[in-house]
Amino acid sequence: MTVEEFEEFYAQTVGRLTGQLYVMLGDHQEAQDVVQEAFVRGWSRRRQLRSDARPEAWVRTVAWRLAVSRWRGRRRTADAWHRTGPPVPTEGPGPEPVVLVEALRELPPKQRRTLTLHYVCDLSVDQIAAETGVSVSTVKTHLVRGRSALAHLLHDPRNEEAPGA
What we know:
The protein folds into two domains: about 5-85, no CATH class; about 95-155, Winged helix-like DNA-binding domain superfamily/Winged helix DNA-binding domain (Arc Repressor Mutant, subunit A). It is about 75% helix and about 0% strand. The chain has about 160 residues and is an all-alpha fold.
């Protein structure tokens, strides 16, 4: 099937197949999703679809199997939740982590990544250099500049000494 033939096949059958899968599944959004995924898979096999006398049946079958696979995945997830129970409630982050994340967002991406790798992931300067593909001196520069920028962004006036004290 050429590109043009596939596009024509898609235009002629997508509505019909979506409607058929909607009736089978009872969920229009799910029908749209699985039909689109089936056409994506069909695109890479369009030469085989041409030799197949029933490409519409192939797409419908693939869409159905995708729907069943999704249903099984949701079922396994539900079963796992049922076995383990609901997650233990946890408190959200306190104000300090939120302020830190907001300050990190103000940094250039390379500095933010370097600081995160160093302080959150506990990587050494050499490990960061190897992972990011930059020199050790560049990593050190990002750390120094990032710390300096964070110190400025996280400046807390409550920590200053009172004048004349």
